[in-house]
Amino acid sequence: MGKVASLAALAASLVLVAGQTYQRLGACPSLGCVLPPDQSDFLPGQYFDLRVEVHAPVNGSEAYNNGKPDENFSVTITKKGGKTKGIAEFFHIKEPKLEKWDFSWYEDLFAEDAGTPSVVNVAAKAYRRLAIYEPGTYTVELSYYGGKKTRAEWVVRPLATKKRAKNVILFIGDGMTTNMITAARLIGHKSINGKYQSLLQLDKFPVLGHQMTHSLDSYITDSANSASALYSGHKSTVNAMGVYADSSPDPFDDPKVETIVEILRRVWDSAWGAVSTAQIADATPIALTGHSRSRYQYGALVDQALNSVTNYTWTNQKGPDVWFGGGAEQFYPGKDSYKGEDYYAKFAAAGYDISLNKTSLLELGNSSKALGIFCRSHLPVWLDRNVYKDNLADFTNDPRGAQGGKQGPALDLPGLKEMTLKAVDILHKRGGDKGFFLMSEGASIDKQMHSLDYDRALGDLLELDDTVRATIAHLKAIGELENTLVIVTADHGHGFDVFGGVDTKYLSAQSTNRAKRRAVGVYQNSGISQYTTPAEGVSYNTGAHFPVNWDPRYTLAQGFGASPDHRENFRVHKDGPRVPATEIDGFDEDDLFANPEDNVDGFVVNGTLSTDESQGVHSLTDVPVFAMGPCQDSFGGVYGNIDIFYKIANCLGLGRPNAKPGILPGHGHGKY
Ligand SMILES: *[C@@H]1O[C@H](CO)[C@@H](O)[C@H](O)[C@H]1NC(C)=O
Ligand SMILES: *[C@@H]1O[C@H](CO)[C@@H](O)[C@H](O)[C@H]1NC(C)=O
Ligand SMILES: *[C@@H]1O[C@H](CO)[C@@H](O)[C@H](O)[C@H]1NC(C)=O
Ligand SMILES: *[C@@H]1O[C@H](CO)[C@@H](O)[C@H](O)[C@H]1NC(C)=O
Ligand SMILES: *[C@@H]1O[C@H](CO)[C@@H](O)[C@H](O)[C@H]1NC(C)=O
Ligand SMILES: *[C@@H]1O[C@H](CO)[C@@H](O)[C@H](O)[C@H]1NC(C)=O
């Protein structure tokens, strides 16, 4: 055997069988899995579960031990410089019972095409409700198959118990990138000779940072596990929140991690709330309380929020103080609510004031817990609520469900600003000296970017900016501005940017795809923004900081790094949200093409995504973090998404040095 050949053979024998398109289990490239996995960080005293699994692949490239998993595995933990102990001994708990299941997965697209999944038998244990109080480095070691070892190094971050901010408001522009902020500024703010005459509120923040959004086991994230990273300091897998995804079939038994609001309630008994323009059970708002590997368990996740599923809290307070958004289908009794039950009634029974429209939202008092659900699904976007209002009548989204057998439209709708300002008043009152945490999400920046509806996405970005501006002014008015850490960030991006201007009149007048493209002006031919010049005879009356003309002749040439086939004319969609790609006659229903009814006078842009994708997808870009208030300086620089959790937790003094709360007299803690 020649030297080159033997080196190649050696290299081949060292190759780890790590799935790429598909994975046997994320963060578990070997046959032994420790979750939380290697490189996990923890807040001192943060509750979590530990799941260990031993895999025995029955067939496929990893087949091992005739498909019989080792049931006699052991797990130890060693603090750096300390003594090695069994997990149960270290945490003073009983050894949990052994669990067994099997699952199957495709090793790659060839296996999927051939219909040959690999089957894996599993032996596992879950050690639940653990906490490590002493900062430092810990090594957890799983030993199995008589000598195989999987090691996980964990870091318990330095302890900070002093509360430096009374309140925290975390704004999340879902999917919002710097490119989108730049485009929103261009259409919402007038400039003369390249100099802006007014700025976004975001432009005025004193501190700017960058966060990296990667998932635990994929570099492109979704909104569930990215929200979870922001709220818990633990990365996870796409579609999972508040847990590390294990391989069991049950979407609710995965090892949990405690979230910022669960810790805040437990440690300081503060008030907290969530506001979103999405359905309230959507990933970003629900990940504050949700613990599941499947973000699609909407009804169950609403039940988890109401009843605090982890039961980490020993105060009597369960559930959010304020919860405003859409998603009525999880509340009125029916197929989308948990066990078909009436969650309006359940929230009312738990002491919540319920409001189902803007009028009653504005009439809410400040003292009671409040649930405001204003429509089915996501709220119609700012552009439809404020400019093309006739479109609202086309929605079938009455928050009460079907009335007399028919579901009509929700017409009395609040925006993000009304919901957020009311939430601040209620949280301020209910939190009192203990302060509050509020998450407020501009959700449809992401949702409308998905459907390439740039105008609707940018309208909602400007609504978020307007909400931040109004919130800061309101905090000042109620004397809380100095006490409040205000953060504006995103959970991930999309590959969106503006690359020029478009003469839409010229584009429409040309008859071929190739001729139409000449209407796109780049460099010196991009011109200046026409969105800030009033159109004759048109008054939108939507106030400063928004375009005065949404339908100018010269629009933005804008596009997407990842798209389905679509047709582009670069004009606003006045008749309602855009549908860029559809099925067409004569082809399979998952074989999609440019929607023949969308932008009929435009030119075709062939997609870069699998032809079964109907929308654009998330992208790799880092996203910005704007901060002001106590601890603002800690948000400068470049860091991972989980660091946002640690920065907020440290500013709130949420770390605990021992198992005793020591803050709430008369409340025992018990053993973990
Ligand atoms: C299980 O492992 C322990 C050591 O970790 C060993 O003493 C024991 O004999 C093993 N039991 C079986 C059934 O293999
Ligand atoms: C593994 O076994 C299952 C069940 O017998 C079978 O359906 C599957 O095709 C097999 N997979 C491979 C990769 O051989
Ligand atoms: C929550 O925990 C407390 C004390 O640990 C216990 O008394 C109570 O029954 C638990 N509630 C639920 C719903 O599990
Ligand atoms: C708004 O809700 C209140 C009660 O929650 C109801 O009385 C009122 O009719 C509703 N208004 C509209 C316009 O639906
Ligand atoms: C709620 O709080 C705000 C701000 O402090 C105050 O202006 C408003 O009057 C309060 N509303 C009620 C009903 O007390
Ligand atoms: C480009 O898109 C058009 C319209 O959807 C479609 O007819 C054509 O087949 C596409 N071309 C390729 C190479 O996919």
Automatic annotation (TrEMBL):
Protein residues bound to Mg(2+): D174, D282, T284, E441
UniProt keyword terms in alphabetical order: Magnesium, Metal-binding, Signal, Zinc
Entry cofactors: Mg(2+); Zn(2+)
Its EC number(s): 3.1.3.1
CDD domains, A to Z: ALP
SUPFAM superfamilies: Alkaline phosphatase-like
Free-text cofactor note: Binds 1 Mg(2+) ion. Binds 2 Zn(2+) ions.
Database matches in Gene3D superfamilies: Alkaline Phosphatase, subunit A (3.40.720.10)
KW Signal (keyword) present: yes
Signal peptide (from-to): 1-19
Pfam families: Alk_phosphatase
Enzyme class: hydrolase
Residues at which Zn(2+) binds: D174, D446, H450, D491, H492, H618
SMART domains in the record: alkPPc
Active site per database record: S223 (phosphoserine intermediate)
GO MF, one annotated term: alkaline phosphatase activity
Annotated family: Belongs to the alkaline phosphatase family.
Protein name, as recorded: alkaline phosphatase
Organism of this sequence: Xylaria multiplex
